[in-house]
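worker-03 picked up job from queue 'complexes'. Input manifest follows; two sequence lines, order preserved.
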Amino acid sequence: MHEWSLACALVRTAEEEAARRGASKVFEVSVSVGFLTGVVPELLERAYEMARQGTGLEGAPLRIEVEPVRARCGECGRESVFEGYALACPACGRPGMEVLSGGDILLRGLDLEVGGSA
Amino acid sequence: MCETCGCGLPEEAKHAHEGHGHDHPHREEARLYRSLLEANERQALENREHLLEHRVLAVNLMSGPGSGKTSLIEALARFTAGRWRIGVIEGDLATDRDAARVRALGLPVRQVTTGSTCHLDAAMVHGALHALPLEDLDLLVVENVGNLVCPGLYDLGCHLNGVLLSVTEGDDKVAKYPVAFRHAQFFCITKTDLLPHVDFDVERPKREARLLKGDLKVFACSSRAPESLAGLAAYLEAERKALLG
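worker-03 finished. Artifact:
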C-alpha cells in the first residue's frame, strides 16, 4: 500500500506550503493522480484521513482528480489518450509511446484562508 | 466583521486595507502542481551520482515474492565469479534470510528491513550505501521488497530497473501488474527450467511487456542453468561500459 507513503508526503508538502503562505486555515487539498501511477484514489483518501490526524489539515477534505494518460507516438507523432497501461499507437500500431501526462502524482493546490493578522 | 470598513466575508475581503493597520482573512486558491515524489526523486538523483562517482553500476530488481530475485543474484555472482565484484542491498518486510544467503557467497550485503513499508525508497538505499564498500564494487544489485505493484513508483537511484516474472506465476501477469514495467529497462522471465511442467507461453509476457515499455530488453533464464544468464550478463556488462567507459 504505497498510498500510505504518498499520503504522508502529501500531508507534509501541504503543511509546508500552507505555512509558507501564512495560512490560518486549509479548506481543501487537491491532488492529481496520474493513471499510470497505479495509485488507488479510495486508498489514498483513507490513508490521507489517517495521515492528517493531529495536523492543520484535519478540517480539509481531499479532492482527487485522476489524470488520464496522454502519449505521443515516436514513429508517426500522433498524440492519443489511453484508458489503460498498454500504450500502442492507434494509428500505426507502434508500442512504446512517449508519455506526456498521466504518470505523476501532484499536489495540485490548496484552498486556504490567509491574512487576518491584527 | 471589520468595524472600520465593514467588510466581513472572506470573499468580500480581497482588497487592500491600507490605512487601518490590519488585513482581513481571505480565501485564496494556491496552485502548486508539486510532485509528491519530489523528495524521493532528489535523493534518487543523489544516489545515482554517488554510485557513478564510485564507478558502480546499480540495478534495482523488482518482482512479486518468490520470482527468484535472490536466486538470480546468487546465480549471477557464480556466473561472473572472478570477473565482477558484486555488492547487494536486500529489501524485505522482515528477516535477514536473503542477506544471509548472499553473504554465504562472500558478497558484501546490507539488509534493509522495511517493517510495514511495501517498497524500498531512495532514502533507505542511501542509508545502505554508506554501509557498503563501494570502492571495491563493480555492480550493486538492489533486491526490492517482493511486490510487483508498489516498488514501481519509487526511483531508488539505480541506473537500471529490472522486473522478474517466473514461469510458475503464469504468463498473464504482465498486463495485470503493469506499473513496475513503466520504468524498467529489462525484464527477466525466470525459472525457465520448469517450462516443461507449466502452461506458460513465453511469447505472451514478452509481447505484453513491450506494449508497456517499447524498448524493454527481455531475457529468459534459469538460475539453475548458469549458461542461461549469459545474455543478461552481457547486457549488464555493456550497460556498465556505456555508463562508465
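worker-03 released lock.
Chain B touches chain A through 41 residues (CB under 8 Å).
Residues 38-244 of chain B form a domain with the Rossmann fold fold (CATH 3.40.50.300).
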